[in-house]
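Hello,

Our lab assistant flagged a job as stuck in the queue for most of the afternoon. It eventually completed. Since we weren't sure the result was trustworthy after the delay, we are filing this so someone can double-check. Below is the sequence as submitted and the structure that was eventually returned. Let us know if re-running is recommended.
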Amino acid sequence: MRKIIEKDEKVQRMYKKAFAFKGIAPLGAVFFSYFVRIAAFVRESKNKSMKALSQLFILLRACLPLWGKQASGLVHLKALGRLFVLLRACLSFSGKQTTGLVHLKALGQLIILLSVCLPAWGKQITGLYDAKALVADQQAQSRLAGAQQGLLEVLQKVSGFPVSAENPVVARSLKIADQYLYQFSYAHVEKSEAIEGQSQLKGDWLNMRFEGKAIQRMVKQANLPRWGTNRPTMLVWLAIDDGERKIISDGLDHVVHEAILDGAQRRGIPIILPIYDLEDSIKLPMEQLWGMFSEGVLSASERYGAESILMARVVKTDEGQWTGRWRFHFRDKEYDYEFIEETLDALVLSGLSAGSQVLANAFALKTNGLSANELRLDILNVSNLNHYAAVVKYLEKLAITKQVAVVGVKKQQVSFDLSLNGSFEQLEQTLALDKKLVRKALPKTDENEDPDMAQALEGPVQFLWQP
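-- returned structure --
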């Protein structure tokens, strides 16, 4: 192996660079050097089927510097170690031709482990203006009815809360809801969608995408809250009894799995489903989740790094209805709910909606009729034009910023004047989701001095840009 590294200059440079992280995370440097050795082995191999794995190694290399910079990443150090053991197994070479099928199971485990190696910070959601509705036929009248249903759903997704059709602006818009469509298409109802007690589904699905700018104007005119696209993640632990008790894990082929994904899309929530491997099953046996014991759920959730946790126990009654107990954890608080619905899809949507409204209360910008707050912000570590453009674009896209103006550039610092649609606290909460802008720590000069007040007196608030 040493000869391989010595004769490949590119790999040798990568090997030396690995130890640049020694001052930040020594264990990360060890794993990084292990990565370089494996990469050298791949480069040496002439097996074309193995070359595709080199792309995976690039991704692995990107995740390793995070161990020292984000403390939560250290929780997953054990998982990363297991990942590299699997990598070595996948790339074992004994002189015989490797078919790839031999290590298929190991590769599957590797991908699952990779998915939990990085903390699940807030994510950018997609499909904010998408909706679908069941319509009787493809005639214009049915399309209008479907568009009205879809418009209310999109408005709830954008605002974070149910929207009343009696709002004057919304009521006028509903009359011409189909004119807000950017595009639409039809799809036949699949037979699989008519199973699980939903045989009444008849007609076609109307898949819709509404015009985003028009929706945002409507939200503003109707004085609705506005929830940005960068939203906190929600980890969902759900146990179901439909004749047999199961815990719904990522990739499980079960109707409730699809109901969770569909409900998350309809409410605009970036969700995480547990892999429920051996480690999860030890920390959270079925009995604990079924008993709604929070301690086991919180323990098993640490590895996923989600900002919020939703746990549930779902049962089908003798009358054919679905009932569920739900508990939502967010910022050290618990919220309990109980719902009874005619269908499983409706029950899951009710649980997800309850959790999403708690998050919207924390992050959505509510109109109050007051003028926007003014704030001077200094962004540090802006070292080139690409960084400069990225910072400006990032700030302009935040839902909380009304206006963004550059007022000064000095070395690696750019100063901005911001007009906010909310408070500075809401701005900090929004920035904390993806951690691209991290507030610069302030030294305390007095035990009783508030650092936020001290900086307000001294000058602009300072953040570090972390591209």
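-- support follow-up --
The delay was a queue issue, not a problem with the job. The result is valid. The chain has 19 helices and 16 strands. The chain has a mean pLDDT of 76.
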